[in-house]
């Protein structure tokens, strides 16, 4: 499956964009259908192509750590935080001391990659709860263009896998972004706030109709303009210490509620 996805990415991403060719005339004067030019790779995609060719989902990142971790011990309430750079950058033992919380975030990842490693980095660890924070990099097109519907399908597949293995699910909203500093301009341009809202609305409705908990980081971090509060981030995307201090009690409350419902 990973190989097939990578071949798709190569075909979708690696071909340089061409100027649209003049439309050819078919018999009777009708124009042939116009084929949209393939978009060129962005800087992030170019930097990742060699790594993706060897391990698209970055399965090697946590393979050894997972083996060393072993099975949960008696009385351990294991929780996996699963996500992208916002999770990867989160020093969990600093914000959740004395908790058995395991970080399985990988910077830059999309739900397509996370779905491929869900079995290794979540199911095989036998947690009580998984907290999934994903979607911002899909909206940005990190692994190529993807519709909101396909992002939803990837998240749904992870949710169904969690339920099939008796893992309680906490599904976190995509966090807001802003464009208040020069450093934030690049991230903001790739992540339209309207798309974040659309995906979050679907997540909230999905959790309301299934056995999962919707963890609403967005409304706790957004300002009156619909963007991330200036004080919570340096680059407009990734939370700083103040941002994580808002997220941590929300996450802990969600985990406690899911634990109590088991």
Structure report:
The chain is of the alpha/beta class. It has one domain: 3-Layer(aba) Sandwich (Rossmann fold). The chain has a five-stranded parallel sheet, sandwiched between helices. Helix 1 runs antiparallel to helix 2 and helix 6 packs parallel to helix 8. The longest helix is centred in the C-terminal third of the chain and has 20 residues. The radius of gyration is 20 Å and the shape is globular. About 7% of the residues have low confidence.
Précis, in short:
The chain is α/β, with parallel strands linked by helices. Helix content is 47%, strand content 9%. The protein has one domain (77-260): Rossmann fold, CATH 3.40.50.
Mean pLDDT: 88
Distance between the termini: 33 Å
CATH architectural arrangement: 3-Layer(aba) Sandwich
Provide the β-strand percentage band.
Answer: 5-15%
Structural class: alpha/beta
Spatially, the strands of the biggest sheet line up as: 2-1-3-4-5
Q: How would the global form be characterised?
A: globular
The biggest beta sheet, please? 5 strands, parallel
Sketch the topology as an H/E string, one letter per element: HHHEHHEHEHHEHHEHH
How many H/I helices? 12
CATH top-level class: Alpha Beta
- In the CATH hierarchy, the third-tier topology is known as Rossmann fold
Total strand segments:
5
Question: Approximately how much helix is present in the residues?
Answer: 40-55%
Low-confidence stretches: 14-31
Compute the CA-based radius of gyration. Answer: 20 Å
Task: Please identify which CATH superfamily we are dealing with.
Answer: SGNH hydrolase
Number of separate domains: 1
